[in-house]
């Protein structure tokens, strides 16, 4: 019975993760709200959940291990989201992560000047809200709940 309940919960988390990523990309590409670097990092647990839950359905004997990994990803997501929420509210100052660019290669002086002229998205600027609440706030809540669920699945694995 617990196995069926776990599979149901995993399916819900899988669907929620897919929906969360579709919503993020819709807000970014259709509505035109550019994400900051922390927003992009906050997507990682949802990608990880999709990958590892799919692996659970393929390799069910590793369910306990993959559940722990997913839980750890969502703990990471809640920490990053809470930090982002704190930056938005002025509790924390922006870190170097907020100013990182996508370019990992050595760049010329001219490229550096072009990059400096480009408007970078600040982590403290909230460009999109739902019911007056920022997406970082929602993500903090959801990541915390999902991490608790995944850790509970991990701890209860194999118990009758």
Under CATH at level 1, the class stands as Mainly Alpha
- SSE arrangement, N to C: HHHHHEEH
**Amino-to-carboxy terminus distance:** 8 Å
* Number of E-type strands: 2
Mean pLDDT over the residues: 83
Strand order of the largest sheet: 1-2
Mass-distribution shape? elongated
Task: Work out the helicity level.
Answer: 55-70%
Number of domains: 1
Q: What is the CATH third-level topology name?
A: Bromodomain-like
The CATH architecture category equals Up-down Bundle
Low-confidence stretches: none
Backbone structural class: mainly alpha
Radius of gyration: 18 Å
Number of helices: 6
* Sheet having the most strands: 2 strands, antiparallel
Query: What percent strand?
Result: under 5%
Description:
It is a single chain. By secondary structure, the protein is mainly α. It has one domain (2-97, 104-156): Bromodomain-like. The chain contains six helices and two strands, in the order αααααββα. The chain has helices at 2-30, 37-41, 44-58, 63-89, 109-117, 135-156, and strands at residues 129-130, 133-134. A two-stranded antiparallel sheet has the order 1-2. Helix 1 (2-30) packs antiparallel against helix 3, helix 3 (44-58) runs antiparallel to helix 4 and helix 4 (63-89) runs antiparallel to helix 6. It is elongated and about 60 Å long. The mean pLDDT is 83.
């Amino acid at each position: 019975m617990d196995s069926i309940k776990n599979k149901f919960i995993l399916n819900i988390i899988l669907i929620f993760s897919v929906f969360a990523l579709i919503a993020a990309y819709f807000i970014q590409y259709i509505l035109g709200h550019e994400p900051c670097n922390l927003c992009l990092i906050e997507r990682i647990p949802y990608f990880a959940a999709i990958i590892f839950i799919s692996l659970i359905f393929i390799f069910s004997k590793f369910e306990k291990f993959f559940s722990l990994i997913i839980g750890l990803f969502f703990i990471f997501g809640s920490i990053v989201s809470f930090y982002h929420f704190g930056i938005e509210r002025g509790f924390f100052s922006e870190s170097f992560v907020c100013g990182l660019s996508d370019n990992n290669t050595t760049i010329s002086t001219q490229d550096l000047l072009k990059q400096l002229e480009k408007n970078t998205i600040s982590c403290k600027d909230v460009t999109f809200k739902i019911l007056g609440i920022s997406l970082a706030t929602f993500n903090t809540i959801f990541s915390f709940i999902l991490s608790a669920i995944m850790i509970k699945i991990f701890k209860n694995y194999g118990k009758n």
